Amino acid sequence: MAYDYLLTYDDYLAAQRAYYSRKWTSRLFYIFLIWICPLAGCSLVFFELYLYIGNEGFDHFYLILGFVFGIGMPLTRIYQLRGCWRSMNPTGNAIPAELEWNDEQVVVNVKDNRDNGEERLLWPSICGLITDSNITLLFIEKKRFIFIPNRALPQEAWDDLRTHYATLGRKQC
């Protein structure tokens, strides 16, 4: 049975969040980039203001470093995510996709503007399956995955896909 669905930018962001929640090292990197860097940057800016008010001298180093950590790194991450989405989809609209599977393979057909990106994957080539509340990731390699929104398939189809992966898929990348 083939299932048609649309991939949106929100699905892409949910896939990135699910990927970062996969392992503790990825989660730690995400926390560092999204929370610790901006807090450290703001702390450096306030430290520079404290030095300026206390007549200790004005050193531009802490101010520049504070803006780089506080604003630059999170904005760079947002820019990278949007750039990756635009490289997959230059128009920025939702991408139609199709998913089907049988006992031998999984076929994912992403119909973007450039061509039909059909990918046929044998079950042993799929080395991971992660599901959260919004998205499911099928891992092909350690850092390469196909994302499928949970709204795309009915519950019976998800159960069948998980059963096929549990019996036919590879367990580690």
Q: How many distinct domains?
A: 2
Note the gap between the termini.
27 Å
Structural class based on helices, strands and sheet pairing: alpha+beta
**Basic shape:** elongated
Estimate the helix proportion, in percent. Answer: 40-55%
Per CATH, the class of the largest domain reads Mainly Beta
Q: How confident is the prediction overall: mean pLDDT?
A: 85
From the alpha carbons, calculate the radius of gyration and give it in angstroms: 21 Å
Topology order in helix (H) and strand (E) letters: EHHHEEEEEEH
Oligomer: single chain
Beta fraction = 25-35%
Sheet of most strands: 4 strands, antiparallel
What CATH calls the topology of the largest domain is PH-domain like
CATH architecture of the largest domain: Roll
In terms of per-residue confidence, which ranges show pLDDT below 50 for 5 or more consecutive residues?
none
Strands, count: 7
**How many distinct helices?**
4
Strand order of the largest sheet: 1-2-3-4
How would you describe this structure in keywords?
single chain, 173 residues, alpha+beta, PH-domain like, 2 domains, 4-stranded antiparallel β-sheet, 3-stranded antiparallel β-sheet, 4 helices
